[in-house]
Amino acid sequence: MKIVKPRVYLVAETSILLDGLVEYLEDTDNQEFLDLVEQARAAGISDVLSLVSFAGKLCYRSLTLGKNTNVLTIRSIANNITHTIEEGHGSVFEHAQLTFVLHNVSRVLTHELVRHRVGVAYSQESGRYCRIPEEGPGMYIPSCIAERPEAVSIFERIVDTCTEGVHQLYQLFDIDEGNFTFKKMLTSAIRRISPTGMANDIVFSVNLRSLRHIIKMRTNGAAEEEIRVVFGQIADIVEDRYPLLLHGGQKTMINGLPQWTFTPEHL
């Protein structure tokens, strides 16, 4: 086995199709909203959040001044985002999503991750199609094991024993001599003795409302260590690129990893 550490990559975000937005704003005489979008871009605010603001303002006919006589001022996109969070109008955050690749994460982690079902999508490396590598699986070693050399030795020995058994079964059945259907069947059957902690990759897409909730849940000090490592990285990406999304949040360090709590809780 080889020791690996999980790593997170942000690979996609919802974007604004400017042609369609301009056409709608022209048809509804709300062209001035484009000025707010440009101001937000100049301030480093992503179109991901401008889309959220657009959805929220549309609900109150407040894209521009004068369309709703109850509205006397127009908020900037930044102020609109923070106000929307404070008001708990979370549904508008569901219009935008981010897509991450989680690399070298265990099935211990992914089995917990997929418990989150609202506003998410997953595509995971297949254990049915993908064999354990010849050099053995990558494994994340939790700190409670890593801090004791004798525990690491036992950990590694057991993983290597499982891996050796897997490859002995591959050889016994001459897996490389079979057609693809045969290889798939054996790969699926033999994976039953592969370690649950074996590293693999998963694509994780999530809307902004669900992401804020999952960051709170999975950076909590009581969460499993590996998933805290991963969502600590995700929270760092969000803090760097979309800091307004973490409005009302407080970051503290628990056992060397960040924990995020939020007020209000109901977004």
| Overall spatial form | elongated
Q: Give the N-terminus to C-terminus distance in angstroms.
A: 42 Å
Broad structural category: alpha+beta
Rg is 24 Å
Strand content: 15-25%
Low-confidence stretches: none
Largest sheet: 4 strands, antiparallel
Strand line-up of the largest beta sheet: 2-3-6-4
* SSE string, helices as H and strands as E: EEHHHHEHEEHHHEHHEE
- List how many beta strands DSSP finds: 8
Mean pLDDT: 95
Number of helices: 10
What does this structure look like?
- By secondary structure, this protein is α+β, with helices and mostly antiparallel strands.
- The chain has a domain at 13-94.
- Helices cover 44% and strands 18% of the residues.
- It is built from ten helices and eight strands.
- It has a four-stranded antiparallel beta sheet. A two-stranded parallel sheet has the order 1-5. Strands 7-8 form a two-stranded antiparallel sheet.
- Helix 3 packs across helix 4 (77-87).
- The longest helix has 24 residues, at 149-172.
